[in-house]
Amino acid sequence: MTVIAPDAVCTPQGLKIGHTVVVEDGSIIGVDPAGRHPVDVALPGRVLLPGLVNAHSHAFQRAFRGHVQWRAAGSDDFWSWRDRMYAVANGLDPEGVQAVSALAFLEMALAGVTHVGEFHYLHHQADGTPYADPDELAKRVIAAATEVGIRITLLRVAYARGGPGAALRPDQARFADCSPADVLDALARLQPLQSDPRVRLGLAAHSVRALDASWLAALSAWPGVVHAHVSEQPAENEACLAEHGRSPTAVLEHAGLVHDRFTAVHLTWPLQGDVDRLAAAGARVCVCPTTEQDLGDGWLPMEPRLRLPLCVGSDSHARIDLFEEARCLELHGRAVAGRRNVLAPEGEPDGLAHRLLQSASAEGARALGGAGGGIAVGQPADLVAVDLRRTAADGVPPLQAAAFVATPEWVDHVWVAGRAVVVDGAHPRQEEIRRAAAPHLSRAAV
Ligand SMILES: [Zn+2]
What we know:
Elements: E1 2-11, E2 14-17, E3 19-24, E4 27-33, E5 41-50, E6 52-57, H1 78-89, H2 94-110, E7 113-120, H3 136-148, E8 151-158, H4 180-190, E9 199-205, H5 213-219, E10 226-230, H6 234-244, H7 248-254, E11 262-266, H8 274-281, E12 284-287, H9 289-294, H10 302-307, E13 310-312, H11 322-337, H12 351-359, H13 362-367, E14 383-387, H14 398-404, E15 411-416, E16 419-422, H15 430-437
Parallel strand pairs: 1-5, 6-7, 7-8, 8-9, 9-10, 10-11, 11-12, 12-13
Antiparallel strand pairs: 1-2, 1-3, 3-4, 5-14, 14-15, 15-16
Helix pairs in contact: 2-3, 2-15, 4-5, 12-14
The chain binds zinc ion.
Residues 56, 58, 119, 229, 265, 315 line the site of zinc ion (ZN).
């Protein structure tokens, strides 16, 4: 049994001051008034939050941070960024994929992330030839997460074409599946990895660009969580309307993929009726604000922002800061609406801070198939201590400090299933993981 004693605990019922959190066998067995148990880990000046959940990640993209944020000449947009992203993706061997993924997951752990949803679409060698083990790269990515000690839901991506009526480009050969059955077979082969309780599997239908209607319908047989990139760019909507006569969300719904296990990633450009479709199904949106800004995608409009459950992801890893992703849900909403208090529940003093932190934790956990119960008895002991003994936190109430001011550097202790992964702001293997990744990181603009 481990008894953790922070100044304040963020629970589903609100902030509790002067309480301890009692952990045993990976679960929370008590949230009790201080003094009831001897303290094992005293955390003065900290607020304890539920573990942060990064619901949308492409870990390998950490390799080119800083080398794709601008272009020396010519115009640049999502599509030209994508060409350069492919060049990096095709340069990574299995060791590189694992090492760069471990670096991304290390950075996440240090920033308070206890669970990542990895939207995994690197499957084969760069020319499209399968590895001797066809699941080599999926296993490498999972190994990277377990090496760091965070939970992973591997969202195994289905990817079949370059666009409506277009074969895959040569630089997309690495992502290719031959049939929907191949995708479901891969998920079946990966099932034994779930014997580690930190590992879960999900399905990602890459996008309506990458899959036609017959593929989407066949993939609806998957009984678990389903994620898809949806309406990230206007050109994607236009191509979809030309091919199907309906929006990407409507195409996914028609195929049977929009249900309460479905997460639409981005939804930056929803079309008429899309929010109704998602709301009626109990689906949610994963918003990736720092990436959407970096790529020039745009901002989530007001209607889905107000009507759908929202979780967050760091996607391309231009930054890894779930506090920032979560607060952008409100701040970008203010910019879009031209007013303040966009997501604040009526009449709840801590309501907005609590809601933003929920988006970065419980709602993300639900998107990845978990309970998302937060810091409560019976829930997994995924916990993050945020140090409020900072000049910037002076005079700021704990929840408001965590939601509106905190940065990853304020995280100093992280537990996953009751196991300490980060202690005093450090991970025991951080130098080794950084050294292993270094040769695989981009050295120049790509
Ligand atoms: Zn993505």
